[in-house]
Amino acid sequence: MSIDSATAAKVAKLARIKVEEEDLPALAQEFNAILGFIEQLEEVDVDGVEPMVSVTPMRLKRREDVVTDGNQAAKVLSNAPDAREGFFSVPKVVE
Amino acid sequence: MLDLTYETPKAKTIAGAKHDWELVIGMEVHAQVATRAKLFSGASTQFGAEPNSNVAFVDAGMPGMLPVINEACVAQAVRTGLGLKAQIHLTSAFDRKNYFYPDLPQGYQISQLYHPIVGEGEVLVEMGDGTARTVRIERIHLEQDAGKSIHDMDPALSFVDLNRTGVALMEIVSRPDIRGPEEAAAYLLKLRQIMLYLGTCDGNMQNGNLRADVNVSVCLPGAYERYQETQDFSHLGTRCEIKNMNSTRFIQQAIEVEARRQIAILEAGGEIVQETRLYDVEKGETRSMRSKEEAHDYRYFPDPDLLPLEIEQAWVDHIAANLPELPDAKKARFMGDFGLADYDASVLTADLAAAAYFEAVAAKTNGKLAANWVINELFGRLKKDERSIADSPVSPDQLASLIALIEADTISGKIAKDVFEISYTTGRSPEEIVETEGLKQVTDTGEIEAAVDEIIAANPEQVEKAKQNPKLAGWFVGQVMKATGGKANPKAVNELVAQKLANS
């Protein structure tokens, strides 16, 4: 698989990262290097090998169904560029 | 258990210019999981709180915050799966669905694309006319809900409330087994009923507890049967997905409108583009949601913050052993044990409170009479007052004693309705009302006979007429009932009037 500038531009857009037109070829090149490495990994025969999901064998930690958090609207909103009436306010997004 | 078997309903067809078209519908139902806290945080799920007050830093997507799963949400998903006779996967896993939207502060939704917790199941969808369809469930997965955007508070701004962000949803995905708008509505309502029985979702559609994405396509007659034989989707038409519907009425309208739009395109020689659409209630049309199209590349990958979810068979068995009786089983039991008609059993099992009320009445008296009284009198009266069964002023014991009075011939069915009304408005017990108001039916034939004799003697002209025309006997019956204040046993009056007229 090979990544061209158009694909790099699409990935940047999906990630909402602004990339200048002239930087796209270099970015695509970097992607290709990464994918090349992954292709190399894919050569390893992993038939019958369970995917490793954790370095130590651990059970997913659970919480009980108890309300322990919340009631901190001021803190939640404190980093917002704009907040009004207890809401985050953003440029209008309507379908 | 009585086995309920039904005819399969016919697929909805829409007449085209040259031939009929059939509808094929699949649904993704998003049901809010009934728990106190959210899926991955300790914030409350309470509806209607002050904006952004039910928000933990995990929900707000603050850096460094890690999700910890709420075990009750897992149990509810398992319970729902068992209620839909579905496979439960002892190992499932969470994935990130990446997209940007103001109501999604993490920048991704935690969902279960590759390994859902619940696999294939089924739902029996009854259409109320003796037909029912078994709709196959493909899967149920757990995922986070998004926040809520409010667009009408400012002309240039949208306001975002994250209270709903991170609340657990079950996405229940059906196979394309639904064949018409009415079936789609009935399917959603049946899921809702099952989840209400299970206590896994509150099912409040107005509050958005239960929402559906509806996939609609059209095909020529015969094509669907080929799909069912082969499970090969190429026999079906290209589908469009109508997003985020929370009303059964609008779901039906949207399906109809969307099917007609697709038929018009196909008949004009065009092709359907697979896309996400929105139903515009005001205009009565569906339109493309372009923004969704652009973001359709969700770049799913396993969530590195969460280990796979492993549950134990013993835990699943424990949940299974504690499942309540479900709607189909309850309905079959009502039909079997109490001899109820299909329709009556459906009405009485529609919700748990009604079913419990009926059972409490039926336990003490005749089941069929109990069903008639609960459905016709009680429900009718409650509906008039817009009251729920939980607020019924007549208790099940009182209704049972009223029915017992009819069965014992102490009062007639007609007087019973008056007693019911008094009991309903005053809360007094039927026995006491009958006693105090002197409403006991007169079964003493001597007393009735006297009244009949008196009326026959006082109306010689009517007697002559009645001899010519036996139908006029009814007039005498009416007069006797009037004279006895409606308390005479109607059967005894009928008999005596006929007998006396014949002999006079």
Would you tell me the overall average pLDDT of chain A?
A: 92
> How many strands of chain A?
3
Order of strands in the sheet with most strands of chain A: 2-3
Radius of gyration of chain B, rounded? 30 Å
Sheet-strand content of chain B, in percent, reads 15-25%
* End-to-end distance of chain B: 58 Å
Most residues in contact: chain pair: A-B, 36 and 54 residues
Radius of gyration of chain A: 22 Å
Helix content of chain B: 40-55%
Termini gap of chain A: 35 Å
Task: Bin the strand percentage of chain A.
Answer: 5-15%
As a percent range, the share of helical residues of chain A equals 25-40%
Quaternary organization: heterodimer
Based on secondary structure, the structural category of chain B is alpha+beta
Largest sheet of chain B: 9 strands, mixed
Show the helix and strand layout.
The complex is a heterodimer of chains A (95) and B (504).
Chain A: H1 5-14, H2 24-41, E1 62-63, H3 73-77, E2 83-84, E3 87-91
Antiparallel strand pairs in A: 2-3
Chain B: E1 13-15, E2 20-32, E3 69-70, H1 71-83, E4 91-92, E5 95-98, E6 108-111, E7 121-126, E8 132-144, E9 148-150, E10 157-161, E11 168-174, H2 181-198, E12 210-219, H3 223-230, E13 240-245, H4 248-267, E14 276-280, E15 285-288, H5 290-294, E16 301-302, E17 309-310, H6 313-321, H7 327-338, H8 342-349, H9 352-362, H10 367-384, H11 396-407, H12 413-426, H13 430-436, H14 445-458, H15 460-468, H16 473-483, H17 490-503
Parallel strand pairs in B: 13-14
Antiparallel strand pairs in B: 1-2, 2-11, 2-12, 4-17, 5-6, 5-16, 7-8, 8-11, 9-10, 12-13, 14-15
